[in-house]
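Comment thread on ticket #2218

A.B. wrote:
> Attaching the input chain for the structure job we discussed in standup.
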Amino acid sequence: MSGSTPRNKLTHRKGFFSVAVLGGLLIGSLPVEALAFGFDDVARRAEELAQQGYRPPETSLPNELRELSYAEYAQIQYKRDRDVWSGNDVPFTLSFIHEGMHYDSAIQLNSIDEEGEVHGFAYNPDDYTYGDLDISDDVKHSDGLGIAGVKINYALNGDDPNEVMVFLGASFFRAVGRGQVYGLSGRGLAVDTGLPSGEEFPRFTEMWIVEPNPESQYLTIFALLDSPSVTGAYRFVLRPGEGTLVDVQSRLYLRRAVEKLGIAPLTSMYLYGPEQPSSTQHYMPAIHDSNGLLIDDAQNGWLWRPLANPARLMMNRHATPQLRGYGLMQRGHDFSDYQDLDARYDLRPSVWIEPLNEWGAGSVELIQIPTDNETNDNIVSMWLADEPHEPGTPLAFDYRIIFTTNESRHLDPQLAWVEETRRSRGEVIRDDLVREPDGTLAFVLDFVGPSLEGIGNGANISVDASVGDNGELAASRVVHNPATNGWRVFVNVKRNNGNQPLDIRAKLMLDGKQVSETWYYRLPANG
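C.D. wrote:
> Ran it. Output below, let me know if you need it in another format.
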């Protein structure tokens, strides 16, 4: 992997998708429908497909559609009066996405009615408006042209449904909660991501969506996944809310051994922020969909890793003998953190993943890819099992995905967390109060949380900081921060070799006991 991964262009700052407005959080076990067609049927198809040779999708997209720019492609819109179920007085409706640009293979979409019968949807160019595009009727009616993806609409504020989830491109999907805008992506599966041999992109080839009734609080989507190495059956249960939940049930069938099988992968973007300020002058203090990786492991505790935009590819893993959850987070939802009127990075959600069955021992991998602009997704995270997977044995991975801007709701209230990481030159204040550099690199961490409330200046609180072999810890200290009712940590380091990364860790201690998550930053080489 020598360069940044192209983003789904529909997440660009002048996005094709609308802001979704959603409702309250609904918690519960996965619902079970009594359907004539269900998850077991998809699993049987996936298992049978795995016994056959892989057949790549047909990609006969006419050049008029393939060569569209992002702005041109965004003009092709599904007619909202054609939304599926729009006249049925049900809370969910569907809009279809036209093929175009690099979305050059169709997906077969179906519905499952209340009797459990399956009905297929067909591509119809009359369902779309084409804006100012001069696309000929011959192209619109081309043989093999189909539906590239599906938007799921749901209304919580007002009567008009807005997008709450979208499936488009390979096995990528996004969702949002109330007041949020699309940010990072989920994926059904990641195969060999970051390997020199090249990444394989499994794709959802067919989906079945259960028709809702007027009282439905969730929507169920089944999906069939296919790639040269693996097939799979998926069941997504979408529960829109203030924090939107997506419960995922998956069964995987290997065609051949896979070196890296990434479970519950997430893809995001980090350009710059206070952790790594921009190298060019800019009025926006930060541009990113996510600014950190958070991991909760029963043995290793909570780890917060601020993201970086490295000068060259960085990949490393964090052991998770008993994973309780992990996610790419957007800590900071004040407009002043970003100052972007178009992209509204302050409204982009964090995504937290919690296993719902036993995954076993493994690790969370973080891949950080260099990028010089915000149109590339350059951050990938996923869970990898320690034990290799062999063909012939079905694999079951079930989990819950939470799209939220209320990150503290999913943290341990007994531990403080890092609200902000700031990178600065180290400095000393002379007797005449003039600041001057001291030759170190400083990281300033603001720890907050209910566990710190009531801990005053007289408390025996300290910082436990350390660095890797490629540097030294010059100084560390902690001071009370009355503005946040928390504590501010200063960590000053020196790096030996600027061509190599430097690992830095810090955590708060009270009377010798850890009272915070562990902050871990990998200072990029040449950065």
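A.B. wrote:
> Thanks. Noting for the ticket: The radius of gyration is 24 Å.
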